Amino acid sequence: MNDVNWTRHLNACPVRKSKRKNQTIKTFFTLSQAKKICKDFTRISECDKNSETLEVEAVECKKPTTSSSEYEKKIPEKSTFDGPYTADLEVMNTDDIENSNTTFEEPIVSATSTCLPVPEVMNTDDIENSNTTYEEPIVSATSTCLPVPVPISEVDFVAESSANASMAEHLETNIDLQKNESPEDLVESVASLPYAIQFPNDPAFISNFTMSPELFAQVALQPPCQPAPFDLKNHKFPTKKQGKYTRSFHEEHYFKKMASGKFVKRIWVSYSPSTDKVYCIVCKLFGTTECKSYKLAKSGYDDWKHLAYALKNHEATPDHLQAEIRRAMYVNNQRVDLPSFQGLNSKVVENREIIKKIIKALLYLSRQNMAFRGHDESKTSKNQGNFLELIKLLSADNAVLSSHLLKIRDVKGKNRLTFLSNVSQNKILNVLGEMVRGQILQKIKASGVYSFIIDTTTDVANLEQLSLIVRFLNEDGDVEERLVAIKVASDASGLGMFNLLCDICQHFEIDWVNNLCAQSYDGAASMQGCYSGVKTLVQEKNPRAIYVWCFAHVLNLVVVDTCDKNTVTRIFFGNLQSLVSFMRARKRTALFIEAQKIYYPNERICKIKNFSNTRWTSHHQVLGVICTKYKAVMKTLKDLSLSLDRETSATAKNLQTVMSSFMFVTNLLLMKNVFEYTTPLSLYLQSPSIDFIQALTMVDNCAKNLFDMREDHTADKLLDNARQFAEDNGLEQTCFPNKRNIIKKVMDGEKKGTETIFLSPNNRYKIEVYNTVLDQIISSISSRFEGARKILADLSFFSYERLISINEGCSIPEDCFIYLKTWIPNIEIDELKMEYITFAKCFMELKNGINIKKLHNKSEPGDENDDDELHDSSSDTETESNTDAPKITALDIIKLLNSYNLISAFPNLYTAYKYACTIPATSASCERSFSKLKLIKTRLRSTMKQNLLEPLMLLSCERNIEINEDEAINNYANTSKILKEALLFK
Q1: Cys-Cys crosslink for 297: which of 284, 288, 483, 940, Cβ 3.0 to 4.6 Å?
Q2: CB atoms within 10 A of CB 546
Q3: What is each CA distance from 904 to 782, 849, 893, 939, in whole angstroms?
Q4: What pLDDT score does 96 carry?
Q5: SS3 for 270?
Q6: Secondary structure (3-state) at 455
Q7: Which DSSP helix (H) or strand (E) runs through 257?
Q8: C-beta separation of 832 from 820 below 8 A
Q9: Helix segments in 65-131, DSSP class H
Q10: How many helices (H) and strands (E) does the chain have?
Q11: Are 227 and 273 in contact (CB under 8 A)?
Q12: Please, which pLDDT band fits residue 561 given cuts at 50, 70 and 90?
């Protein structure tokens, strides 16, 4: 019968059709794949246990001589395989196998599902006509199903396992001839090895030859075969006699003991229950040609006496470590084909892994503001600097980096590509800095509106550094203040800094002429000068860029006014300054610390800080330390007054006399009460998340609290507290001394004047000191913040209080929002009024639906330079409750509109709030960048160039911006041709 007739016979057979309908098992092999695999199919004929070698006998397959009609009679009934898995199988009689002079080698076993599907197969005529012998097949263990692609005509190969036999003895062949089915639709059920069903990821089933990409992917993603004893037959590992003792495998080899005592699982160790051997599955799959020839990868290892030693040596070999890297890259889908790990790309993978560790080291050092290079970086140096020493530390747990360092050390002469030179460090740092800046610029341009914060300072090298901070709202409605650039201002005049600002914006394509809405600087003439200041020059090209004098600087000037304008307070702070200067000596500080241990043994040790004009909370900190450690201060001065040094003794005695007076104690408590309102306000004003409306509202609240202190009962309470303080500390003066009224003598011919009104010491203090100080600070706040109130004329309608009043029925003026039309482009005033009124009326309902965060519950950043000094932490928590922050801010309202998706419904209102929140209240972010500058450019690093300083500043100040390491490596590779060849995949 020819091929055409035989195919027609198979298709027309009703029995075959009924079987095909009931068939539910599928295979992932196509007919063409099955034919190809068929040509590579052989059977294991003999297994030598001693030499562990397989002798394969291959003979040509021939078509059975039995006719098809006789063959059909020999098909038995369906049998059931009794084992870990039960399946209905159509099998062939063993007599047919004996009659067919066909020899089979090891089958292709692919564990991929819970069943054993057989692929579509070749026609028997095809096998007969092809003089083909079949080689060792591919074995794949990838899931819980075992499709066995063994296409020998319409025959299925079935292997059954025997418990104590070798591989050749394990395999017993059964063949089943399916009838009346076309080769394209042939799918058969097969029973396989019990171990193969229970352990489909058995490493012995994996061939050492090339697999298809699909088959390899299934095998590679399987976990290692690591059965426990109770998973095996007889619930224990097989034993064998080795030497004098009977030994077996133990599951403790699945783990590696670290130096710390912890155990880490070896994911590369794979035990084969079918052969009772241990394999390295990683080297078997991902190893190089040489690596696959290792015994652990090729044939397995079963010398249980020396297994621990063999595993330890194997996992430390470079070939195994390279295979581990390839496995990790493959599993993470960074490379999808196995050949990419070979040849040149294998070296690229190693180089990229090295660069990743170098990037981590550079980011750590830059974000910790540490120096990179040492004085002596030679190979014989004991200390090669922070960077190289950190690389050595990282190499202890990274074999690739360790191997790279060994190569560098062993090579004589100069290496061309080490990735560790100062040039490479600077290149990578510049790449990382530009990536951070690129993300910032992308957000700035996406916001559409922003404001500038600019300030200058002199670094340790006497260079004028200009810091440019940009404030904007991100896509989530949160305010961000980001460092864009820090440049050397060779010309510190207003025009020079304006030209530098224009150059920066032009270089980074920042369209400040159209999109800048506000600017905030300090009170220097070069910044806010009305003729040639930066503020004026910016407004000439962009009139809408309103200027805000930094609130924190203004508040600091208010404090200075309070300290210097009144005679009593000026003398008081002069005495304090003398005390601080006197106590800062090393021996005197030691005496002060010892006195604190005596009088305050269970409290924190404090240090008296120096007054500073730029550290805005320093006055309050000094007052807090003296109040809480008063006895220790007096004890220190008393001991120093007994010194043999005349200058020390005299100064200590004078300070002791001044500080023990009742006037000093009263002024101390008065100024401490004043700073309890101004210091929390100063801390709040330094927050980058505060908006302009909120800041001015808090200033008004502070002025109101100070005005309430002017009441007589508050002054009386202060005097009572001063009296109690003097008594608690054992002072001689517990009240003001009485002064005799001076009566002017009347000469002859003069008229007698009015009698002098007698004032008690307490009333005299209230009039001359208490009320005068409060009047001075209140008037200073009003006058110095007057310029900011003009900006708030129309913005005040967006405050929480005005929204509540509109909700309660108050009307708005007809001319409201007129200023906004000249400030915000393309805004419709009439529509804004309608949106504002509508939103105000339903504001309370919207507010009750969200959880508004209260500002005074947030911890606001202070001066970063104070981190390394001791201070009284109790004063911070004590004063935070004295500043009244708004319940809901403009930023909260923007988030409210975002949360309800009302931006499109209230476009003009949202735009107005966005502009209002973009206005910076302070330039404290520049001050924070200068704090980083002092930590980075120190006296020992004073020669640092600007092209290195700027990326270090960006990485340190904007440390919360994530960096994609792969993108950074690609950018670094594009800087030279040599790096392209070493770091980019081919």
Answers
A1: 284
A2: 21
A3: 39, 19, 15, 54
A4: 42
A5: strand
A6: strand
A7: strand 255-257
A8: yes
A9: 68-73, 94-99, 124-129
A10: 45, 19
A11: yes
A12: confident
Segment 273-287 mean pLDDT? 90
Residue 298 structure tokens? 């090729």
Q: Is the pLDDT of residue 341 over 80?
A: no
Gap between the Cα atoms of 383 and 353, Å rounded: 25
Q: Which of 425-439, 540-554, 806-820 is the least confident region?
A: 806-820
pTM for the structure as a whole = 0.62
Cross-strand bridge partners of residue 585: none
The CA–CA distances, whole Å, from 827 to 556, 830, 912 equal: 37, 9, 8
Beta-carbon count within 10 A of 142 CB: 22
Query: Do the beta carbons of residue 104 and residue 132 sit within 8 Å?
Result: no
pLDDT at 336: 42
Buried/exposed 173-196: b ≥16 CB within 10 Å, e otherwise: bbbbbbbbbebeebbbbbbbbbbb
Q: Rounded to an integer, what distance in angstroms lies between the CA atom of residue 180 and that of residue 21?
A: 13
For helices 907-918 and 692-708, give the axis angle rounded to 10 degrees.
60
For residue 497 the two structure tokens come to 């800094």
Q: What mean pLDDT comes out for the span 212-225?
A: 80
Residues 959, 957: Cα–Cα separation, whole Å: 6
Query: How confident is the model over 126-170, as pLDDT tens digits?
Result: 333 444 333 333 333 333 333 333 333 333 333 333 333 333 333
Two tokens at 640? 């120093």
Q: Over the range 889-922, which residues count as b (16 or more CB within 10 Å of their CB) and which as e? A: bbbbbbbbbeeeebeeebebbbbbbbbbbbbbbb
Query: DSSP secondary structure string, 609-638?
Result: PPP-SSSTTHHHHHHHHHHHTHHHHHHHHH
Q: Is 747 exposed, middle or buried (0-12, 13-18, 19+ CB in 10 A)?
A: exposed
What is the CA 268 to chain-centroid distance, rounded?
30
Q: Which two tokens stand for residue 35?
A: 């034919």
CA distance 965 to 971: 10
- The residue assigned the tokens 């404030």 is 471
CA angle 299, 303, 307 (to 5 degrees): 100
Q: Select the more confidently predicted residue: 176 or 558.
A: 558
**Kind of pairing, strands 450-458 and 516-521?**
parallel
Residue in 130, 2, 134, 13 with CA at minimum distance from that of residue 71: 13
What is the tens place of the pLDDT at every residue in 367-411? Answer: 999 999 988 888 888 899 999 999 999 998 888 899 899 888 877
* Type of residue at 346: S
Average pLDDT, the chain: 76
